[in-house]
Amino acid sequence: MAEALVSVVLEQLRSIIIQEVGQEVRLVVGVKNEVERLTSSFRAIQAVLANAEERQLEDGYVKLWLDQLKEVSYDMDDVLDEWGTAIAKSQSKVHEHPSKNKKKVCSFMIFSCFRVREVGLRRRIAYKIKELNERIDVIVIVKNMFDFKSLEAGIKQHEHHETASVIDVKDVKGRENDKDRVMKMLFSTESSQGPALRTISLVGMGGIGKTTLAKLVYNDDDVKTHFKKRIWVSVSDPFDEITIAKAILENLKESTQNLIKLQTLLEKIQSLIRGKKFVLVLDDVWNENSRKWEQLKDSLKCGLPGSRILVTTRNRNVANCMGSLSTDILELELLSTDECWSLFSQLAFFDKNSRERGNLEDIGRQIAAKCKGLPLAAKSLGSLLRFKRSRAEWESVLNSHVWEIKEAESNLLAPLQLSYHDLPSDMRRCFSYCAVFPKDFTFERDALIKQWMAQGFLRETHNKEMEVMGLECFEALAARSFFQDFVKDKGDGSIIECKMHDMVHDFAQSLTKNECFSVDIDDAAESKIDSFSRDARHSMVVFRNYDTDPLPATIHSFKKLRSLIVDGYPSSMNAALPNLIANLSCLRTLKLSGCGIEEVPSNIGKLIHLRHVDLSGNKIRELPEEMCELYNMLTLNVSFCNKLERLPDNIGRLVKLRHLSVGYSGFVKMRGFEGLSSLQELDEFHVSGSGEVSNIGDLRNLNHLQGSLTIRWLGDVKDPDEVKKAELKSKKHLTELDLRFGSRTDREKINDDEVLEALVRMTPPNLESLGIYDYQGVIPVFPCWINKLRVVRLVDWGKIKNLPPLGKLPSLEDLSVDRMERVQRVGREFLGLGVDGEDGDISIGEKTSSSSSSAIIAFPKLKRLLFGGMGEWEEWEGGRGGNEDKTNIFNSIIMPSLYLLEFWKCPKLKALPDYVLQSTTLEHLEINESPIIGAQFKAGGEGWPNASHSPNIRIIRS
């Protein structure tokens, strides 16, 4: 934590000197020297911080020194941030263009006021910097007394525990299934599994039992028989090829006394394993550089086919680096409750009689449950309690945090300390911040990244944005087993939610004892909060009872808080909020989601450091204009505020704003968006239909928008020319777009055709998903030239009689057609057959390699198709009984990848087309409230023989 803080301060100090040299800011006389002296002091401290953070684990005085350093660094960060914000704010007002109805003298008055404020500001900053310099001087003096080693002098590696292959199998609990899976991987001879020399990796957090499982496999009798040579090497860090090569030779009973060069060692290894089947265990691997492993692995390929390498690691990236295929990576799960209890009890109750066991078992089960399936925790706490016989001693362990149990601390936290110190300094800070959340908290990836951004943990580089760096950090922490219980995106498989094991959470809290705290509010709330340090920087307050408990008044006294996260519904939030904001002037993150807030006080504009505001799920009608003074704002969330009527008129002043969420809040009037050129996330944009309030043209400068955007209209006025001004074609990073035309009182007067045509002609070029809702035009306008569209939703097209030529979309996988009130027939136009391309439309398909050279493919990649609410639909061309010309259809390949087909409320549909009935890929057919076709596809029905090959046919309310 301290190392990352110091880096931030140094960066800010450097920025000040650069600005002063460039005459962008003016310093009070003497302050430049103070800034340079501060910079020198911080650089001297930075050089020894790695050594200091290592020594704090054993030396309380070093820990105290680091705490003092963090305090000064936090205060320095506040001062510099205040200065930079005030200057940017004042200069912004100086350069503002006065309104047309104002006299030019106003500009002079603003400039004059700025000069007066600037002088006062510079003097105040000068005083604070001088004061901080005096504090840092003391810290430097104390630093010199500790005799820290600098980076240049070299710092010793963290001690890794060397492992051996010996094990007592009777002591192992709960790894039978995992052992069987690994054995199958070792003995498999399937060529489809990849190269002959396969690398199998066991991945999991420290203490989960990777080495134990490897030992079980290594010592199995079948393994001893199957492999001619067995080799066990404890690798740890650093990954040194020569050391590993020597360890392999020693396992093979070969002397390495005169072998120095890697080449000689590898040649010797080859001579000993050539033509022999071997298994090599590389335990505790940390190396992520595949080049360091390549030469050693190449030398092992001379072994007999079927040889195996078994790797244990905490990091999935290491498994990939070592060459494990995804099918050869086993991520170890935690033990079950019963397995954990069995492991704990065999140690804790060793040498205790039945009376003692009966007296302690209830507490013991609670302690075992506290281990949350982590074998190392069960073994460590079980061994600790082996020599404790009183209930008081056991209850003390039950009620303590891990770091408070001195006898267990080294065993439990040491493995996590190794993983933690293997992280870069900025990543350590992101991990430590997780301590502010309670145990068993569900982390949402994107929300956590935004909070890291708000705290300044993620610094942009010239080629990497903060969000990208945050995503890389999150994925690195997940890969290193700091997170678990993953929920993954169904599309790309990325992790979107996760949790943290209790022991990992305890470790994070041990790193931030006086900085982070979370508290549950109950009858003893005040006393709980009083126990925390007033120097705390991050807090989460959790309300379990709905609208009954007030916000504790004590929270106002934590004046240094940078994060305040409230989870729940405090009864007094509206009354407490003005005073709360007035006292917590250092806040960067303010999360008051679902707190029953009806009005946001205007003094929120005084929180100059604020970067992340979450007011979602509240009862607010509008935001105060003073919020537009928050020049550092990065994230604003007012989604699910169903009473919200408008955003501030001057929201365009928030030039740093990157994430704005207003979804599910009813219709919100918006204006001034053209100034938000940094905006990357905007879930919804509302167009009022009135040029004085919200125009779609205000989107023109928002070319950094990413991900998903919904455009909603309210009212009867739409201007196709205004649509063109939005320049949607320039939004290259948008991948999902929903167009919601909204309800209208007089639909006959609206020319939706022109508006939709203008929209689709300006469609972002990299769209993968497009939804069009409430379209009341009569022409089936659709951008069939977008090659990347995978998902299409067409809902409530009230006047359309023919569907667009969607079969022309080459990448379409998921299609929903819902509530088309006037569609009676779906024909060749839907497939894109016989429809001329225009305006850059793509061709409908490629010629097949069959004898029919003219055959084309319609819907080549479509997997899921849904029709719903089609009350008048009777005929789907190509079905039995149709009298249309089928020549073009039967000369084509249609929906060759269809996997799922659903119908909902299609009461008049008579039959399905032959190309659907004869599909060999269709596995799911669901028919809901569509009686005619429902009757056909019941077992024994008229259509059953044609579709019985589909394994899942479901008829509901037919």
Report on the structure:
The protein is of the alpha/beta class and 958 residues long. The chain folds into six domains: 2-146, no CATH class; 176-204 and 212-329, Rossmann fold, CATH 3.40.50.300; 337-399, no CATH class; 414-510, Arc Repressor Mutant, subunit A; 669-761, no CATH class; 778-958. The protein contains 30 helices and 30 strands. The strands form six sheets. Strands 17-18-19-20-21-22-25-28-29-30 form a ten-stranded parallel sheet. Helix 4 (60-94) packs antiparallel against helix 5 (105-146). The radius of gyration is 33 Å and the shape is globular. Residues 94-116, 837-853 and 879-887 have low confidence and may be disordered.
Number of alpha- plus pi-helical segments: 30
Strand order of the largest sheet: 17-18-19-20-21-22-25-28-29-30
User: Tell me, what's the shape?
Assistant: globular
- Strand residue content: 5-15%
Unreliable sequence segments: 94-116, 837-853, 879-887
Distance between the termini: 63 Å
Total number of distinct structural domains = 6
Helix content: 25-40%
Major sheet: size, sense and barrel closure?
Answer: 10 strands, parallel
Assembly level: single chain
**Mean pLDDT, as a whole number?**
84
According to DSSP, the number of beta strands is 30
Q: How large, in whole angstroms, is the Cα Rg?
A: 33 Å
Structural class: alpha/beta
